[in-house]
Amino acid sequence: MKGPLKGVVLSGGKGNRLRPLTYTGAKQLVPIANKPILFYAIEELVEAGIRDITIVVSTETGDQVELATGDGDRFGAKIAYVRQEQPGGIAQAIGLAHEAVGDAPFVTFLGDNFVTDGIVDHVRAFSQSADDAAILLKQVPDVRELGVAEFDGERLARLIEKPQGPSSNLAVIGIYMFTSRVFEAIAAIEPSARGELEITDTLQWLIDQGCGVAADIIRGEWIDTGKHDDLLAANRLVLATLAHDPSGGSVDASSELHGCVVLEAGAVVVNSIITGPAIIGERTRIEDATIGPYTSIDHDCCVIGSEISGSVVLEGSRIEGRGFRIESSLIGRSVELHGGDREPRGYQVVLGDFSKMRVP
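and the corresponding structure tokens:
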């Protein structure tokens, strides 16, 4: 039986796959159902009984992350921060948390990973075991861009980073559990060909040293939200779990709500149709518009005369004009999107923060 576990959340990285949205913001703060991705990771740790959490942040977006998450009180946790001056791989980032976690066992959660079934059972199993590490795996159709686990019978034998000819479809997802032995492994490995300390090499060192490394296949959904399509998929999954609750906003007599629709405080719906699952953020105004399904619109937005479905719209954006039918799109903060008077055409767009776009 191990002592109390701590948490380490990795919230660095440049978010290259979500550009242009991440040119001005942390990828972990992009919202799913109007809540930053990072918050889901923190909540998973807290649900598993972990209250002492360290977030490893980058120099570029660390201030944004600290402002959003604060001291952890809103989550029922205590959060501290460690800066990663230069990206050097997952293992390098974990090593930066050594002083914060000390000799305690801990759970590492990549801040842009999303799981539907939680981690409570996995954390409990690790805390009750004698293992020095435990990893979670997921069967995926194409593992060539991921770390891959290979077994010898029931024993975890090898971990390979981004193999071009994988012999397994079991991907290593971004949730790991360690004792302090991992810091010895990180100190022992060398940077890979891409100049990073790989988490797969770290785990392989532990295996080769005879340490217990457990592996469990998750049954629920896992999504790495670092790409446009995957983020929209995660948004759909969360929206599908929401209960109908329009009580926070106001809906006029000429509007219709169908299915599960959440209106947050101060949302206003005028002469519009919203088809759930959908969520409309605080102080957002929807007028002469058709919204949903599977759409989240964040706080302080304004949508007038437009159609939006299967999309994520971040805070402070204004979308106006009959020339828009926005589908499967990701629209950043404080975007201005204006259309003309013609009949709607369908658009699929990814717009970074503060973008301005006009369609004739």
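(Above: one complete record from the training split.) Residues 72 and 78 are 5 Å apart (CA to CA).
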